[in-house]
Automatic annotation (TrEMBL):
Gene Ontology terms, MF aspect: acyltransferase activity, transferring groups other than amino-acyl groups
Keyword Zinc-finger appears in the UniProt entry: no
Keywords: Transferase
Entries under InterPro entries matching the protein: Acyl_CoA_acyltransferase, GNAT_dom
Keyword hit for Lyase: no
SUPFAM superfamilies noted in UniProt: Acyl-CoA N-acyltransferases (Nat)
Protein name (database record): N-acetyltransferase
Start and end residues of each N-acetyltransferase domain: 9-172
The species this protein was found in: Streptomyces kasugaensis
Length: 177
């Protein structure tokens, strides 16, 4: 864990070895963030996704704390070489190394305060990969527009699970020209 504190906000970095320690926090934040949708089967499977991503080599997580209370988190992991599934959506050549941002979530009372971008950048700033990918529910166009303002571009759509929403597939370069 590597803390970073500015203006009362504490951004703490975690790795795969910290999963057992941070898992309860991730589940608690998720339960609060999705309190109005916890009856949905796909939302209820979140613990499986935490374990799936948390056990990937290179897993990285940043949890944001405000006054010692977890306000949100973002996590992801590098795609395994040769499994850049997003390539099916582009025609131009691109370097393959990719960090997949799996989750970015804030508790309701900390939304719309600029924390999501700080959390996202804290997750990506140390990454060595050429690209970051993420998916966003197509029913959330304002969220997609937010990601576009952070440098992502929509390259396609996919529904990875039968009970999941249809997602916009988004790609961002992590290297400046």
């Amino acid at each position: 864990m590597e803390p970073s504190v500015t203006d009362g906000i504490d951004l703490r970095h975690y790795t795969q070895g910290d999963l057992a320690q941070i898992r309860p926090t991730l589940l608690d934040v998720h339960a609060d963030a999705y309190a109005d949708r916890m009856d949905e089967e796909f939302v209820q499977r979140f613990p499986w996704f935490v374990d799936h991503w948390g056990n990937k080599p290179g897993f990285s997580c940043v949890i944001v704390y405000s006054a010692g209370e977890p306000a949100g988190f973002s996590y992801g992991a590098p795609n395994d070489p040769g499994t850049e599934w997003w390539r099916e959506y582009i025609t131009e050549p691109a370097e393959a190394s990719t960090f997949a941002v799996s989750e970015l979530m804030l508790r309701v009372k900390w939304r719309k305060q600029g924390l999501s971008e700080r959390l996202h950048e804290a997750l990506l700033s140390p990454r060595a990969e050429a690209h970051a990918t993420l998916t966003v529910d197509t029913r959330r166009p304002r969220l997609q527009a937010l990601y576009e303002s952070w440098g992502y571009r929509k390259i396609g759509q996919r529904q990875p699970f039968a009970d999941s929403p249809l997602y916009a597939v988004m790609l961002r370069s992590l290297r400046t020209a």
